[in-house]
Amino acid sequence: MKKIFKLLIIGGGPSGYTSAIYSARSGLKPILITGINDGGQIINSNNIQNWPGNYNKINGYKLMTNMKKQALKFNTKIINDEIIKINFIKKPFTILGKVNTYYSKSIIIATGCKPRMLGLNIEKKLYGKQISTCTSCDGYFYKNKIVAVIGGGNKAAEECLTLCKFTKKIFLIHRNNNLKIDMILYKKLKKKIKQNQIIFIKNYFIYKIKKINNMLLIKIKSIFNNKKKKIYINGLFLAIGSIPNTNIFSKYIKLNKNKYIITNYTNNKYTSMTNIRGIFASGDVTNYKYKQIITACSSGCIAALDVENYFKNI
Prior knowledge:
314 residues, five-stranded parallel sheet, 26% strand
């Protein structure tokens, strides 16, 4: 006889764990499926300075460890499994993982996003070797070496500042004129640029990467006049945004043009509900604009409260 859960949460990032904490406290006895990246992308962040109430330095791994302990404290059942197939046609909803098959009366999708790549053929071959999206994971390997960071947002600025602790020189390459970063990051970045530790190249993009012996040759081109430049580096770090993890749901769940889940679709009573009653979504998988831990967590809280009210009204 198959076991049917009341609530299943898919995704082990800040939004998923917040949903778990709130729904567990309300007696929904949630099951949280972590996916392959328990803790989400935030576990790669070395220094979180804008988490309310935490004025001391905290890293992403510690923050997510604390969230996990809190979810366990309220008796959330946490399962390390990866969802590979779903069936949302009828209830109970069917979720097939690599380890087990799950059945649930309601679902919160909190699968977050994955880093965006450049789209060049060589990326797959070099990813995890000389191309990375995580300075806290791989930055130390470039001690006293030359690297490049691609991007123009907070993530790119943070990556550069982290790499300054190890590297000899950093090329920050951005395809636009202005950086879209917080003022506190801008001041720190500007200081490093003045010291020539960071070389800021604006209005250029990478169009080709070649591996030559132990070095990477990156070829960049101006967005204005097609002027080309060559730069030799030891490693390349990408900070060019993210892509929502929604492919597995696209057959059933309504997505917008950028593949983010559309919520508040059928009933204003439940702002986190998707086009299917009983299925909710939260966090970065619904939010294409504000990629912050606090917005992911608040979204997770809303989804949990919506699920609680949903069961009160059926």
